[in-house]
Amino acid sequence: MPVLRTVGEIRNLVRSWKQDGLRVGLVPTMGYLHQGHLALVQHGLRFCDRIVMSIFVNPTQFGPNEDFDRYPRDEHGDRAKAEEAGVSALFCPYLNEMYPAGAETYVSLDRLPHHLCGPLRPGHFRGVATICTKLFVAVEPDVAVFGEKDYQQAVIIKRLALDLLLPTRIETAPIVRESDGLAMSSRNVYLAPDERRRALCIVQALDQAELSVKRGEYDVRKIRLQIMALLNSANFQVDYVDFVHPDTLENEESIGSPTIVAIAGFIGKTRLIDNRLLIPPNPTDDQKRVW
User: I want to staple 32 with a disulfide (CB 3.0 to 4.6 A). Which of 23, 40, 72, 143 is the partner?
Assistant: First the structure.
């Protein structure tokens, strides 16, 4: 499996595949791969003959007080995992390939970044939108696969591809969880044993929200109070507990149609996010089609 560092190298390889009639998928990552990333590869192989995985810790999506410098990196281990999962090529570009000297062009969205994580991480989604656009231009994939754990990111990338008339089809894959339910994340490695145990409060909170809806409670205010009690009992530092429309990310006041409940915050110094789709009883077929 080749590891390519320049845009020219990956573009030439992908174009040679396409000349042979092959469909090409892209799985963008920042590395330190876990089973969640590898599940994206398997999802992509449902639609494509070849998968390119990018590994690039993108500096423009980190704030000044975030964990860019200590974000876990393991290219050697990632290469072995990716190859075993069926990746055809790794694209691990140099920084100056993605951001040439003097770079001053960025991609921004007007509305979607102003919800959920956006206000708490200024500039984050500008960085995400910019690097994903650059990867789409560099790799020219037929399909790109994103995980639903980063729900806001997935919605933003779908909107970006639609607005910019990109030929790349955006696919999303379900959240992959540890055996006890915690959403897989490269940042889970930061958690001390006690913090890892307390982190399960997020899953318990999502379970509580789902159970409340099943029992006929649709008032967001009341469900949020139940969730906050669970999170506070585990000393989870809450950034937000929001109930939003699956497409617009606008806040909802009641669960009258499929709604995303999204949670973000800190256990110790580690920021965690998770979400769950809440579906009220007897939704219409149109209401079920949130993706």
Answer: 72
Length, in residues, of the chain: 291
The yes-or-no answer on residue 37 being catalytic is yes
99-153: per-residue pLDDT in tens? 999 999 999 999 999 999 999 999 999 999 999 999 999 999 999 999 999 999 9
Identify whether 185 is part of a domain: no
The residue out of 173, 204, 229 marking a domain boundary is: 173
Task: Quote the number of domains for the chain.
Answer: 2
Contacts of 126 (CB under 8 A, 6+ apart): 60, 61, 106, 107, 108, 113
Output the pTM of the full model: 0.94
Q: Are 133 and 158 within one domain?
A: yes
Out of 34, 37, 124, 245, the active site residue is 37
> For residue 287, what are the contacts with CB-CB under 8 A and spacing of at least 6?
257, 258, 279
Which residue is it, tokens 């410098």?
A: 69
Query: For residue 256, with 0-12 CB atoms within 10 Å meaning exposed, 13-18 middle and 19 or more buried, which class applies?
Result: exposed
